[in-house]
Write a structure and sequence with these properties.
By secondary structure, the protein is of the alpha/beta class. 35% of the residues lie in helices and 20% in strands. The chain is built from 14 helices and 22 strands. Strands 16-17-18-15-14-19-20 form a seven-stranded mixed β-sheet, with helices on both faces. A six-stranded mixed β-sheet has the order 11-10-9-12-13-21, sandwiched between helices. It has a three-stranded antiparallel β-sheet with strand order 7-8-22, with no helix packed on it. The chain binds nicotinamide-adenine-dinucleotide. Nicotinamide-adenine-dinucleotide binds next to helix 7 and helix 8. Keywords: Oxidoreductase. Belongs to the aldehyde dehydrogenase family.
């Protein structure tokens, strides 16, 4: 029997007790892995152990896949109506709503983001997304196609791999990643499962080995909501074992992944080499944020700061390359520096804290090595550049200036509170520099000239462009990357396409061949 992790929080911002089962979640039960090995879950604020969880193996992935298939064939998929699935998703949202504080406390402890941010942004947005897809569940339909009077033709948007292919397993597999580097564990969990369940798929999901606790708490919420056994299965484990077993599994018919571009490439290769399962990938970014001379300067400083420091800069969409037109460059830099220095770093459960630790030692070391490379390459550390304190993984908000286009800190995703501020002269110059990247996830444009702002938004090669704002997400609006930032879109009605297969049905209305 797997254990339960119990923690009593007695902090300035949250008092309460949280329980989390530490086993794998298969068929709505917490179970031990087939091996007895475990994974240590560490607290990034102290570097100390929080708890240990079961480590799954490829054998456990097989068991989870069988459970998902059984659920698909008996209680989910074409055996439920969209309205029933929508009701269950609404119940899930209601229970999550009641567990806001608990989910936020776990997220802050495990991931390092502040409790208030976890509660008011991550958990809140996760609930919005579940409700949004609950609304879609009974509105998934195809088209009636006019051909000729002797024929009735229509399409159905079915869960992936179903009717007529019953000999094939019919479930959806997801690897949920991110999070290993201080991302949005609970939010990503929901971005994956909500559209998949709304459209009738069943799921096997691997959370990050670094931040698995909210995924495990969500499993109890799934039980409580009455979602049938086997519809969502969670296997906690490492990427090169469990992740690899999932991406190369012959019986999994689709995979969705959030994580780095390097691992995304491995997943796509494994999918291609196994059963050619379709892949959606939400990968990294090195996102330009463009500020023209005519921008509302104070507003641009606020949003640029939010753009890079949101979630400690550990965000795929972080506005980490800030391009400022020469007329306001000095003024912008002065105000942006003030703002960066004013960020209050500390324990995620402290009062009035803006930034906690990075989510793991590995990520901390990675960011610090980027800062070192910037210094070695000759860039100027305008502010920050150091570790804060000697315990936990805290890093000062850092701004580099005097950078060159070929420096690592300009080209590569750092995934931390580190930006480069670059001067530009005119629109053509900044569009060229902004597009000089193999990524294409997000961008920002600040200008009070609406023609220029829209023209620039259209010329930037990115899946999302925010004009006079940044990091402004809505459940209705698709999110995803151009180029090596990914394949496919999450959120909005666009995500539904990832989770349905289109079937054309031709009905002969009396036409004979002879
Ligand atoms: P990561 O790629 O290091 O790890 C992601 C997941 O992949 C983990 O669960 C890991 O266990 C698993 N994994 C590792 N090797 C694997 C393999 N061989 N096969 C299958 N799975 C394997 O990423 P991370 O550090 O957790 O997250 C940070 C990255 O995620 C950043 O690059 C960030 O930009 C990106 N991200 C993108 C989005 C988006 O929506 N585009 C959102 C969040 C994060």
């Amino acid at each position: 029997m797997p254990g339960t992790f119990t923690h009593k929080f007695d902090t300035p911002v949250y008092k309460g007790t949280v329980n989390v089962s530490t086993g794998l979640f298969i068929n709505n039960k917490f179970v031990d892995g087939s091996d007895t090995t475990t994974i240590d879950v560490l607290n990034p604020t102290t570097g100390k152990l929080i708890t240990t969880i079961s480590e799954a193996t490829a054998k456990d992935v097989d068991i989870a896949v069988k459970a998902a298939q059984e659920a698909y064939d008996t209680t989910w998929g074409l055996n439920t109506s969209g309205a029933e699935r929508g009701d269950l998703l609404n119940k899930l949202a209601t229970i999550m709503d009641g567990a806001r504080d608990e989910l936020a406390a776990l997220e802050a402890m495990d991931n390092g983001k502040t409790f208030s941010w976890a509660k008011n942004v991550d958990v809140d947005f996760a609930i919005q997304v579940v409700k949004y897809y609950a609304g879609w569940a009974d509105k998934i339909h195809g088209q009636t196609l006019e051909t000729d009077e002797k024929k009735l033709t229509y399409t159905r948007h079915e869960p992936i791999g179903v009717v007529g292919y019953r000999e094939f397993p019919s479930y959806e597999l997801q690897i949920l990643s991110d999070t290993s580097l201080s991302m949005h564990p609970v939010m990503m969990f929901v971005w994956k499962i909500a559209p998949a369940l709304a459209t009738g798929n069943t799921v096997v999901l691997k959370p990050s080995e670094f931040t698995p606790l909210t995924a495990l708490r969500m499993c109890s919420i799934i039980q409580e909501a009455g979602i049938p056994p086997g519809v969502v299965n969670v296997v906690t484990g490492y990427g090169n074992t469990v992740g690899a077993a999932i991406s190369s599994h012959m019986d999994i018919l689709k995979i969705a992944f959030t994580g780095s571009t390097i691992v995304g490439r491995k997943i796509m290769e494994a999918a291609a080499k196994s059963n050619l399962k379709p892949v959606t990938l939400e990968l990294g970014g090195k996102n330009p944020n463009i500020i023209y001379n005519d921008a509302d300067l104070d507003n641009a400083v606020e949003w640029a700061s939010f753009g890079i420091y949101w979630n400690h800069g550990a965000a795929c969409c972080a506005g980490s390359r800030i391009f400022v037109q020469s007329g306001i460059y000095d003024k912008f830099l002065e105000k942006f520096t003030e703002k960066s220095k004013a960020i209050r770093i500390g324990n995620p459960f402290g009062e009035n804290i803006d930034q906690g630790p990075m989510s793991s030692e590995a990520q901390f070391n990675r960011i610090m090595s980027y800062i070192e490379s910037g210094k070695t390459d000759g860039a100027t550390v305008h502010t920050g550049g150091n570790r804060r304190g000697s315990e936990g993984y805290f890093i000062e908000p850092t701004i580099f200036t005097n950078v060159k286009a070929d420096m690592k800190i300009v080209k590569e995703e750092i995934f931390g509170p580190v930006s480069v501020v670059v001067k530009f002269e005119d629109e053509d110059d900044v569009v060229r520099q902004a597009n000089d990247t193999f990524y294409g996830l997000a961008a920002g444009v600040f200008s009070q000239d609406i023609d220029r702002a829209i023209r620039t938004a259209h010329r930037i090669q990115a899946g999302t462009v925010w004009v006079n704002c940044y990091n402004h997400f809505k459940p209705q609006v698709p999110f995803g990357g151009y180029r090596q930032s990914g394949i496919g879109r999450e959120l909005g009605s666009y995500a539904l396409e990832n989770y349905t297969a289109v079937k054309a049905v031709h009905i002969n209305l009396g036409q004979r061949l002879s």
